[in-house]
Amino acid sequence: MTTASDPSYPAHWEADVVLRDGGTARIRPITTEDAGRLVSFYEQVSDESKYYRFFAPYPRLSARDVHRFTHHDYVDRVGLAATVGEEFIGTVRYDRIGPDGRPASAPADEAEVAFLVQDAHQGRGVASALLEHIGAVARERGIRRFAAEVLPANNKMIKVFKDAGYEQKRSYEGGSVHLTLDLEPTAESLAVQRAREQRAEARSVQRLLTPRSVAVIGVSRSGGGVGAAALRNLRDSGFRGHLYAVNEAATTDLLDGVRAYPALAAVDAPVDLAVIAVPAERVPEAVAACGEHGVQGLVVLSAGYGESGAAGLDRQRELVRQVRSYGMRLIGPNAYGVINTAPEVGLNASLTPAPAPIRGRIGLFTQSGAIGISLLSALLRRGEGLSSFVSAGNRADVSGNDILQYWYEDEATDVALMYLETLGNPRKFTRLARRTAAVKPVVVARGGRHTPAGHVVPGTRLPDATVSALLRQAGVIRVDTVTELVDVGLLLASQPLPAGPRVAILGNSESLGVLTYDACLAQGLRPGAPRDLTTAATPEDFRTALRAALGSAENDAVIVTVIPVVNEQEPQDDLADALRDAVAAYPGKPVAVVHVELAELVDALSPAGLTAAPATGPLPARPRPTDEDEGGYARPDVRIPAYPAAERAVRAVAEAVRYGQWRRANADAGHVPEYEDIDEAGAAARLAALLAGVGDGVLTLSEPDAAALLAHYGIRLLPTLPAPTADAAVRAARSLGYPVALKTTAPHLRHRADLGGVRLDLATEADLRRSYEELTDLLGTPDELLPVVQAMVPRGVDTVVRSVIDPAAGAVLSFGLAGVASELLGDTAHRLVPATDRDAAGLIRSIRTAPLLFGWRGSDPVDTPALEELLLRLSRLVDDHPEVVGVTLEPVVVATEGLSVLSAAVRVARPPARTDLGPRTLPSY
Questions:
Q1: Residue 752, SS3 per DSSP
Q2: Distance between CA 306 and CA 316 in Å, rounded?
Q3: At 503, phi and psi to the nearest 5?
Q4: pLDDT-based confidence at 621, cuts 50/70/90?
Q5: I need a surface site. Which of 9, 223, 352, 827 has the fewest CB within 10 A?
Q6: Helix residue spans in 420-571 (DSSP H)
Q7: pTM of the full predicted structure?
Q8: Cα dihedral sign for 25, 316, 9, 2?
Q9: Paired strand residues for 798
Q10: Residues with Cβ < 8 Å from 742, sequence gap 6 or more?
Q11: What are the distances in angstroms from CA 103 to CA 68, 146, 272?
């Protein structure tokens, strides 16, 4: 008997998944307690589906069938169910078989697999999700292949296997199609899995942002409170769908002009989205009502959850479980709300009052409601619009990763702006950010960089500058403040990317031009000498100068500086028109304006100031190049961002330059090499054995265990022999062969040659005994020093290779030269895992002391290809096995030919619940 409470029950197989249509389901092992659910499920399956499953009419399950399908040992026989609420919507099982096709046990590595999905849920991707999860379970249990018998007419199931991306063989035998799938993940299977993940998660967000009907639960009759505010904002935003107010004490047909009901069940129409604004203790009742009514998604404005302490966190976890049990998704709790400015939707399900944001090309995500208010206000002041806005509060379910999935394919969003306090699953975030940044900019301001004591946002182990550099490698534009977030977003949303760092500066103030010039140099740009148009410059002078600067092949971007002219009443609309006319003639280069106390110019240049800005219909595309027309002014829909300080404009331009450089370099991002001698399965088995019986802590491996694990990935450690006595040292040296090195391994002396704990090139027994005596006399007893003997290796450059798991950046690969000087200067470079061949080559060239590897001052260049291969092998190890949480190879001596790894420290732990590896799954609580 196996139940969910039994110790043998594999609870780690439980997972919430997003299905193809954006709804959710829970996948879990089937237990003996599921007999009734299985019978009910089978009764709802059509006769045709039953025939496809059993190859014969099979109207009902016998008692023997029910027993067989609910009793599993979770090793040789496993069954999984996809559930919504308490009901099964799909099942899958495997039975291990031997070469003769009969039931077997390990070491047999093949299993027969079969699916059954309720007809009402076919087409939602249930079988594909079950295949991913049963495949992962099978690999964990040592099964390498699945076999399946499918009727030729069962095209849907054949397609599930065919589209999975696994290597497979097909044959036609005895009236059925025989399929064999190799369960070893391939590049194709991983690509299929991630494409399905993207479509499903994007669809789930789309359902939240494009509802056809919305109910606000918790609307007070007095008109006060967040529920009433959310209802008014929905009503006043011109929401195109049906709107309902829910208040248990409602006695009238209308609340604030909206149809009112005492309970959601009284609404005799579908409701796609519910906004919940009741006290936390009443939220479960509201969620249950939504689930029973078939609501697709929730925005929970209510507070009193994870932000309020341990009890609130428990309440939040239970909220997520309840929401997902109904197949819904959740924004919040403690959310500020969502906005979608698409004219066919007109959704403002937030606490943002009128005037709501105008339509634009910027997508905005925040974790903090207060920051969301600040950003919305800043965009409104600058006249910029939004495509969509999500302020997720505690982001217990829907997170920034889900929003990135949606924005990736959202044609209404050109730029993604995000304020994040944590990355949640950093591996997944950097993967999604890199993919999204390849097609549109992702700009991130991150809070919690310097976490105060007691704050709920966890800190990071890596320096903030390092985390910033790592995010930039993924294409993320990292800024420090919300002001910079808006500044950079405005430029990227309205201007093309610059082709390079050359900046032309022109304006009517020499001093402001010089300030702009200095700011460009500080940002690493290449400014030309500022062109002073003098304070007598007219709009026509600006137009002519800007056209000339944009038309010059010597410039990649232009910054225009403008100050007010004393005793002049020149309308700022005229200047704005002149600048827009020049940009329209040369739309391929970005332009930014620096102004001093010219608010009218800012308004005239913003989208809100364009007389032709459409209120409805398709958003205008960015302007395309046109033939130059010297004879008159054009009036295109051209936007030019304006900034009140030179430093802010230059920072925005510089970020666009760096992003453009990343986009061009990322066009050939390299690849992760395959090495035939890597034994991934052997490493997995060794890690499982090492972690058997280990709790939640971190285990530091012994040197032999570390060497054995690294060897699975082709990383060889130089043999080390202990030397507890001088005689033992001599025996070790004879075994290894002279010359040898004698070194201490005590933690306080490890890798500290400067303290005298390392003696090299000991060519004779006499040299070795003398050095041993000197070490013990100078530094302590052998028991304190833990001396060892190693063979000497060819001389070269001593380096350090590391990999760590950082909570803010994910898996990180690091490289630097060994020694106190490098540590003191912090001369270490980093790359995200998995590293490509281009990453590895760039990594070793990124440190300031890199010339020492390439023949500095006449020295021989070392074997950098061997060093790159070592980095790539270590990256593969850490990427393939989330159990490996830290590796330090120090020193790695890189010679003119080959390298030697002299020492290794490896730390392992049980993998976290979310690793971005394995089958698709939502964060668990």
A1: coil
A2: 6
A3: -120, 130
A4: very low
A5: 223
A6: 426-437, 464-473, 482-494, 510-522, 539-551
A7: 0.85
A8: negative
A9: 893
A10: 723, 729, 758, 759, 762, 768, 771, 772, 775, 787, 788, 789
A11: 13, 14, 47
